[in-house]
Amino acid sequence: MEFTIEGARVFLPDGLVETSVQVSDGQIAAIGDRPIGQIVDGRGLYLGPALIDLHGDAFERQVMPRPGVYFPLDVAFLETDRQLAANGIATTYHALTLGWEPGLRSVANGQATLAMLDHLHLRFTVEHRVQLRWETFAFEAIETIEAALGHARKPALAFNDHTSMQMRGLDVPIQKRAFEQSPDFLSADIDDPRLLERQIRRAAKMAIPIDEYMSHLRSVWDRRDEVGAKVEGLAAKARALDVPMLSHDDTQVETRHYYRSLGSRVSEFPMTIAPTQDARDAGDTIIFGAPNVVRGGSHIGSLSAADMVEEGLCDALASDYFYPAMLAAIARLDAEKRASRDMLWSLISTGPARAMKLADRGLIAVGQRADLVLVDWPDGATPAVRATWSGGRLAYQATPLGAL
């Protein structure tokens, strides 16, 4: 379990330096010291702290590769683990939706997923955690979430209100909706035929008839007056356990103020500039999706993540729905000269570690956990992972044809 990576350009806290890194017993033992153990040739490559993915739901495509077609959870997560390691991700937070809709994102499926992640823990090559992505109208999920909050691999808790988003006024764009618990929130008439048209695709995704879906939506929407108390109660329990909390898809300053007052200091994928700037002014962490960067903008017309990086309004990038997007985003931001390479690398390592209160990783420094990634990054090209270490263990290694 001792090795030395020599000759790489290393992302250190104070910048890029060509040096060696010594690893022993799963930790970074020294930097620039005499070699120990096996020698890993890093010449011509970059060595960074391994990636930390704060929000990734690409695992859902292993669980359900086609609509309504499910695969065994153990098969799905062992494959996901391989994908994570191959993309340099040594710590992942699976964005596990716990909602009121049936199917993939149901509470029952969430419970099975949590159990399977525990069952497979010692077989994984990287560290799997969960972001408890709670749909706030899903009161049936609260007991499951409360049980998960105290897990040894501390989860994160994200407050999602896609129900109100679905029920917003029919002429209100997603980005212009009011704070969901505000009296100013304009909702649609549930009997309006146009609302039914809005829900047809969701019902098809759930594989249930539209009339059955609308009946269920009606009963869930009737809970609206109780949501605030449920949110505040669960936030208090998470706060007592020092669980990181995130608000999701903020559109208003009022939204960020509300969740900050409950102890949530992370704004995940804010949709408009006002709550984003408010988060920055308050010292909150701001997360955007890496696919937003790679694709050149938001696929639903929200803020440009690349612009937010350049303006200093982004602390972390998450894979969202595509694991390779994290490195691809860094490559595009670098090519567009949005920031220095060392600052860009912090968006996928140091920034996420701070957001999740992971003091033992996210930096290459003596005493830190040896979560490392060695990448081939020619100028103007996308980084390609050569090796990933998780806690000093080799999780992935590849030698391209051109290196033979």
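(ticket continues) Second input and output from the same batch:
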Amino acid sequence: MKVIRFLLPGLGVVLLGGLVGALGVDEILHNLAVMRWAFLYVVLLALAWHVTNSLAWSCAFPADGFRPRLSLLFMCKLAGEAVNQLTPLANLGGEPLKAFLLRRQSPVSRGLASVVVNKAAQVFTGLLFTAAGLGLVTYSWEVPLAVPMPVRGGLALLLLAAVLLTWVAYRSHRRMFTALLGCTRRCGLGLERIERLRARAADIDYHISRFFRQHKGRFGLVLLFHACGWLLGACETFVILRALGAGIDFEIAFLIASLTVVINGLFFFMPSNIGVLEGGQVFLFLTLGLDPAAGLSLGIVKRMRKLMWISVGWLFLTHLSRSMGRASVPGAAVAAAAASPGAGRALRQGAIS
């Protein structure tokens, strides 16, 4: 595991370095220098995207229950995504972390249910976003003539597989966590711990099923906010390419952004998609008959934006962890007082003095 942790990022860095060397360092630096203050618009678009996703997560909580404040959801979202980006866990670490960071505001079972609902909506709208991009390729322009048939066939198969996977996940949402525990139990892994988690898994499944059954309108809002987020991602691609002087229309930028979702999804195991993000842009630009140096510059600008928000996410994670640590100290003191009368007297005397 330790070897993979360092091997994957190393391969990504080598790929990125090879692309920069092949396409020309001077041209890449020139393209990045052209960005200048336009990078501020990129940051603001990313901020808007994070806000819309936080609003989507807020709507993933039932209307008749307590919802954490939006600012806390925003911080937990960035903290969880920072963990997702820097570990090869395919969202297995950052998504549960979001619910864990909310445990002072919401029960963990309800928090995890909201994370699952929110992630399902994000994946579903991402599929629609990708399908829209592929539809533009197929029906609107002569661009498909430049796309090799194997590439088009592979993208179609990937989209079909993703749709089927989403359908299976929706059909099993009523017993998702219980089924996962049952699968783990059949494999003979951690039997005692699985038995302890069975009730909590059933509670999470209950909250997920209840939300989909009783709050269809709120789920529609979750989908709407995530759709706005994906559209903002296309706007970001368009702004970057315009700032680089590529002269590309919004439809092409929409196509590039939608196909980037597919490429990043294929290499989910690569921490922060390092090398993959930049290489994917070069591949798309070459396939569409565009300047590959502009594609690499696009990927590097997105990398800079991503690094900035990862840093913010880690700052939020540090802040939230310290806040939770400070909040647990009084509870520990009370527990010690209850366990030991002598400790209780010392605690009371210290409070009086």
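Agent notes: The chain has a mean pLDDT of 75. The two ends are 53 Å apart (CA to CA). Closing as not reproducible unless the customer responds.
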